[in-house]
Give the backbone structure.
Amino acid sequence: HRLHTLFVPVRATANSNDGRVDSEGTGLVDAWRASAARHGDRIALIEGDRKISYRELDATTDRYAAELMALGVSAGDRVGLLLPRSMCCVMLMLASAKIGAAYVPVDGNL
C-alpha cells in the first residue's frame, strides 16, 4: 500500500494552539526521540513475525512524516487514520505527531 491510501488529511477549522508546535521540548515527539536515542537497537514494535527497532521506527516515521508533508499535511492539521490496529497505524500516528499534526482514528464500521 502507498501511504496516501492509508490516511485522509483534514484541515482544522479551529485549533486550541493556533497550529503552533510545542517548542518547549516537553512533548510526545521529544520523549519519543529520547527513547529512540536510548534504546536504538531494542525492539520497539512486534507484529506477527515482523520486529522493528527503535532506530528503524524512528527512520521509517521520519520518511512517513516527509511524505505526509509532501501531500499537504502540516502542523495543526488532523490526519484521519482508517486502519486496523497495526504496526503501520502506530507508525502513522507517530509520523503525524512529528509534523505537529493530530491523528484521528476512524472506525470503519460506522
User: Anything to note?
Assistant: The CA atoms of residues 17 and 95 lie 19 Å apart. Helices lie at 28-39, 54-70, 87-98. The beta strands are 7-10, 43-47, 50-53, 78-81, 102-105. The chain is about 35% helix and 20% strand.
